[in-house]
Write a structure and sequence with these properties.
14 helices; single chain; 17% strand; seven-stranded mixed β-sheet; 2 domains; binds zinc ion; alpha/beta; binds the ligand O=C(O)C(=O)C[C@@H](O)[C@H](O)[C@H](O)COP(=O)(O)O; Rossmann fold; binds nicotinamide-adenine-dinucleotide; two-stranded antiparallel ribbon
């Protein structure tokens, strides 16, 4: 078992990583139950694959689980589902002191975190992430959100959980495509500022994707340690440090928006293509050695993730994709700070990017990839 602390003064909390933790949920979570019950919000896939483990363990500790089961998928991060979730929580007479458990991937974590942050002006919540993406990224750091017509994650809050309980064995039931998408956010930590970790991913990534328990636990712990340190330093993305976690996301969110947030392109797939594009754009600007951009592109392709517009199945032109980027939350005074790289492990926030140049690059990149 490993415990990583997210140090945020009164909002500090632990991330517990333990193989089989769901089967010991009684000992981890019973202390958070009021009147012998815990409300657990999950989606239909996770309810089938993992909820019984949590339920059995909590029942043995005399805690009844009150489940709220939502439809799976990105479309659930919406006003409609937020409203019905809030109504369901109120019907269960949730009090401000109660803890709501988010059992699932990033969709459930982001939605439940946002609901908890506004219900009765703030109830406690606990993250029990069940996808690789949620275990290495979304369950940590307190970004909560739903999507709006105008774009991704545009309505939300910073609201930290009280505990993150990670059981890597929940990934045994995760579809391979979802594991691969989550791997993009693992790679991200190496590309931001940890070139040794990127090299580890090049050597051991296939073992991690194949479900090797040691590789999985190593990658989860190394990722959450990296994220916890960044969040402790810049909780609300004010200093620029936390913005590094957005590597590949300005491109990625625009690609996701182009697909209408459908399952044609998962978040992690958009981020994978977005990181490869960010490295190639950095190389085109003369900032990054072309060999590094090629290495990043090659690894992303080798693990079966999209690395350009064609492999992300995006047909929109550069200008249309840039129009989506105008909704990015980093936009300030009419300019969009962009995550670029001077090399692998050397990501930085640039304020010198012209969006018409980004549009031109996207068209060139599409033509080069097709050539
Ligand atoms: N808040 C943050 O810091 C942050 C960080 C990264 C991503 N995100 C958000 O996270 C979302 C993506 O999260 P995700 O990739 O976890 O997707 P997801 O929550 O949609 O889960 C992916 C799919 O896997 C299923 N699933 C989950 N766990 C399972 C399990 N153990 N066994 C079987 N099936 C399982 C789900 O039902 C779903 O169909 C996006 O909306 C993204 O914006 C947020
Ligand atoms: O935690 C962060 O900070 C991140 O940026 C993590 C990202 O992986 C995540 O997708 C996040 O939701 C994107 O944030 P946004 O502010 O661009 O919506
Ligand atoms: Zn992300």
């Amino acid at each position: 078992m490993a415990i990583v602390r997210v140090a945020l003064d009164a909002r500090s909390y632990d991330i517990v990583i333990e193989q089989g933790a769901l089967d010991r949920a009684g000992s981890h979570l019973a202390g958070y139950a009021r009147k012998g019950r815990l409300v657990v919000v999950t989606d239909a896939h996770v309810a089938a694959a993992q909820l019984p483990r949590l339920d059995t363990s909590l029942r043995a500790a005399n805690v009844a689980v009150e489940p709220i089961i939502l439809p799976p998928g990105e479309q659930t991060k919406s006003w409609r589902h937020l409203e019905s979730l809030l109504d369901d929580l109120l019907a269960l007479e949730i009090e401000r002191g109660d803890h709501i458990v988010a059992l699932g991937g990033g969709v459930i974590g982001d939605l439940v975190g946002f609901a908890a942050s506004i219900l009765k002006r703030g109830c406690h919540f606990i993250q029990v992430p069940t996808t690789l993406l949620a275990q290495v990224d979304s369950s940590v750091g307190g970004k909560t959100a739903i999507n709006a017509k105008a774009g991704k994650n545009l309505i939300g809050s910073f609201y930290q959980p009280g505990l993150v309980l990670i059981d890597p064995s929940t990934l045994d039931s995760l579809p391979q495509r979802e594991t691969r998408a989550g791997y993009a956010e693992v790679l991200k930590y190496g590309l931001i500022d940890d070139p040794d970790f990127f090299a580890w991913c090049e050597r051991e990534g296939e073992r991690l994707l194949a479900g090797d328990p040691q590789a999985r636990e190593y990658a989860i712990e190394r990722s959450v340690r990296a994220k916890a340190a960044i969040v402790a330093d810049d909780e609300r993305e004010m200093s620029g440090r936390r913005a590094l976690l957005n590597l590949g996301h300005t491109f990625g969110h625009a690609l996701e928006a182009d697909t209408g947030f459908s399952d044609r392109l998962l978040h992690g797939e958009g981020v994978a293509a977005g990181m490869a594009l960010a490295f190639r754009y950095s190389a085109r600007l003369g900032l990054c050695p072309p060999a590094d951009a090629e290495r990043v592109t090659a690894h992303i392709k080798a693990v079966g993730l999209p690395q350009d517009l064609a492999s992300a199945h995006v047909r929109a032109d550069g200008a249309a994709l840039v129009a989506h980027m105008l909704h990015d939350k980093k936009m300030a005074a009419g300019t969009l700070p962009f995550l670029l790289a001077r090399g692998i492990g050397q990501t930085f926030l640039s304020k010198d990017v012209a969006l018409d140049d980004v549009a031109a690059f996207l068209e060139e990149d599409r033509a080069t990839a097709g050539a």
